[in-house]
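ugh ok fine here u go
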Amino acid sequence: MNKKLYADRLSDLVLNLGVALKKGEHLNIAVSPDAYYYAQNMAIKAYEMGAGYVNISVSDLLLDKYRAYYQEKEDLTYIPSFMKEFVKEGIQVGIKNVRIECRDERIGLPELDDNKYQALSSSVKIARRDLTKLYMENHITWCVCCAPGNKWAKAVLGEDKTEEDLADILASILHIDTPDYLSYWKNEDKKVKERIQKINDLEIKTLHFKSKETNFSVGFRKEAKFEGCSSLTTKGECFYPNFPTLEIFNTPDKDTAQGYISTTRPVSVMGNETEGVKLFFENGKCIKAEAKVGQETMDNYLEIDEGSSRLGEIALVDDSSAISRMGLVFGSILIDENASCHIALGSGYTSNLEIGDKDPKDYGCNMSLVHTDFMVGSSDMRITATTYKGEEVLIMDKGNFVF
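structure:
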């Protein structure tokens, strides 16, 4: 698929379904320099739809790495006041947010000192904390999507491949390679909601994950409900947080994880690659991580704050999903998490808890500056549920849903 067509259809999908942009509403688009064209195209389309103000926030990871290389750790906490004011005004006007991910920015960069990265990223997260909280609680619509790049294409498909080759694959994943892509996602949403209803009707108390490399259990409060595909804001507005989106996810009780669970795909953590990670839990806390690649990174991640060593998300995905069947590792959480069941260390989604205005911390929701997904699904994964009625129910067998 050529660049212009991909950009046009991505913009149409994200603006209409992703963030459900309405006339007069404001929009922020976060993007790396490599994918600026796609953000610019989306901004133009937003104005054509009657958007109020559209801002493009360029995040330059290469520049961040040079800043971290040349500055001392204590200097990396500085965030200019104008950025804080932008966040404050964004909260006031209810600015909608899109993030366009392109892996080009992460390919070929030197590793970053974990302690410096932690200081740099934490300062940005603290500055954006109140706005992020509104997104996590579904007060404002948001959407994360992907755009192809030449370096990303070569890393995934081979040295002779180009941005357009990767665009063909991403277009098929997003289903924008056919004219009825909006209808496809609406129909997919209906199917996912039917499965979610069946799972929520079980009133799951505990999930047990078992495979050759995993023996792990985690619990849920009665108020915790599985969600997936589209979401609703607190005002009842429908939006799609991710494209693609195949997961069914929930917020676990942060004090219940027990046993060990192993990653099945590489994961970028704090800007550095990790692989072959085994996480060990006691009473909800990850007490140890063993990694074939990225041991120091994982050790440092678990020390970011109290919540970085506890779970904020459990997500179920068929091992036979279309993305999994491709047999490719994209190196992008957005895509790879839709090929595998996954867990997240860090902040939980309060929107999964049916508690009204009550404090989510009183209902087991984890709080942290970070949220990082780790793919754990495999073709030999078996997941069983124990319900609040005391029944044991098979949920997934050989990596796939049984219903």
